[in-house]
# Entry
Amino acid sequence: MRTFGDPITVANVSDLMFVSRDVLSVKGRDIGDEEVAQIALCHWLRKINLAGCEKVTDYSVSRLGEVSDLEELDLSFCNQITDRSLHALSGLDKLEALDVSACYSVTDQGIIAIAKCLTLKRLILESLDHITDEGIIEISKLPRLEWLKMPGFAEITDKSLQALSLKQSLQNLSLTNLSEVTNVGIVGLGAIRRLCWLDISYCSKVTAEAIAKLKELLPHCEIRFRA
# Structure
């Protein structure tokens, strides 16, 4: 990912006076809809970090879909947002990185919507328990996807891994705590020749024998495995 200089920290509306056009990155600190709605007026921003801003809702996050130059967005632990926000963000045609970890109300419908952002390279879906194969299969169609963190404890099966095995752009993949994936799906990932980092920890149906086979197929890949 690109760097955009040190972010301006926004803790209240008055901090926005420091967000001039030469500022490309902002970080919210325990802010809510009023501040985020004002941030959305800064259409030139490239990076917005709202991690942990639990007061933020769909009302303001939906407005971030108007930040036309936005490339990186961190919404992790903004746990009031829903699929509505992802639908509103789906028109961002420069978005490369999105983190929606612990946005617990996000479902497959939101993931299918954000899969319309064909520029996405990095996607973090940690702790999204409502995501299934339906959402991941759509994500696998992203043409530039390089980095994917799957949601642990979700109902994801080998169908998702089969779709991802066709994604030759993928370089970094995390599959932790997925109880329904099996050796068949894991070994199939050996078809991703550019894969250089893979975490398969705590997938209860995956065995050491499958990991050994995968290492033969991907000798250059760092594979983390804990039974």
Observations:
- The chain has two domains: 1-155, 157-227.
- The mean pLDDT is 96.
- The domain at 157-227 is CATH 3.80.10.10 (Leucine-rich repeat, LRR (right-handed beta-alpha superhelix)).
